[in-house]
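Quick check before the chapter quiz. The format below is the same one you will see on the exam, so make sure you can read both the input and the output lines.
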Amino acid sequence: MHIAQLNVATARYETDDPRFADFMNNLDRVNAIAERSPGFVWRLKDDSGNATNIRPADDPLFLVNMSVWETVEDLERFVFATAHRKIYARGEEWFHKMTTPRFVMWPVPVGHRPSIDEALARLARLTGEGPSDDAFGWERLAELKLWMKKRCA
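Here is the expected output.
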């Protein structure tokens, strides 16, 4: 089994707004780091090379990011031990705070590429039912050391 992840956010600005430029200007660099990272399998992207033009909701500011990793430890290292961490730390500059979970992980068979609908259903399951073996966040994985130090969810 591999691990899939989805994170969602509602941007404060359109993608071409100068206030969103630092985020947009770092996408290619952070995505390249992800693709070179140990355990990386796949990520959602369109012809632009990222997922910012993929709109699964009516809200044009609702953005998604989805990827598959060999293990949760591989994903953890990418999220908290690469340049991704610095961009992640600045999230409040670019994205509205959410009152519901914005991040979910779930196991997927090797070779499976989850659809956005599948991923959003996992997020809805986490939101409605709480963490389970089929939909969980970092809090369910207390053995992961980097997350515990950062206390991010």
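If your answer matched, good. The beta strands are 2-10, 40-43, 62-69, 103-108.
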